[in-house]
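User: Sequence in, structure out. Go.
Assistant: Echoing your sequence, followed by the structure tokens.
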Amino acid sequence: MELTEKELRDRGIRRSGQEIEEDARRFAFRVIASLPTGRWVAEPAGELSSGEAAVLEEGGLDLSPSVAEEPDPLARTAAKYAALLATALTTREAAGLLGTGESRVRQRLKEKTLYAVKAGRENRLPAFQFEGGKEVPGIGEILRHMDRSVHPVALSNWFTLPNPDLHLDEEEEKAVSPREWLLSGGAPGVLVPLAEDL
């Protein structure tokens, strides 16, 4: 259900529905990001009776306290997804940034030369596609070859994390991300086979 601007004004709210939605998205991201990941139990054996602990240890389960717990992968992915949406551009914002109309942005989404995630009924274009007020050079060519069934977080990670197959200089040992490769003037064609393997 969407409230019209008149309904919002009648209730004393001077913000648009879109601004309220944006605030809610940011709030949800902050809440999710502040939550602890996983179930933290300092002493696992303390959660069980001595008989239960003895049976489990006899069966090979280690009930000693964990020294360093890794964050829950599902919670980590949920937080990254919330961050991806919170920093993504609306179709209108992307059109303004690209100096084109919203219909052209929608057309490029259909052509698969831009990437969006659905947030309700609206498209959100993740920020990894843009840099310095414009589109990352050559990204459209890469996006065209990407499998759209890949999870948005996996796709974002692929673009933004170092890839061991990419180096700006043959003598340089430091790997760069596909995004850095494109921003440094690297040929998009080098990334196509890597993108197709994702």
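User: And one key feature?
Assistant: Residues 47 and 139 are 51 Å apart (CA to CA).
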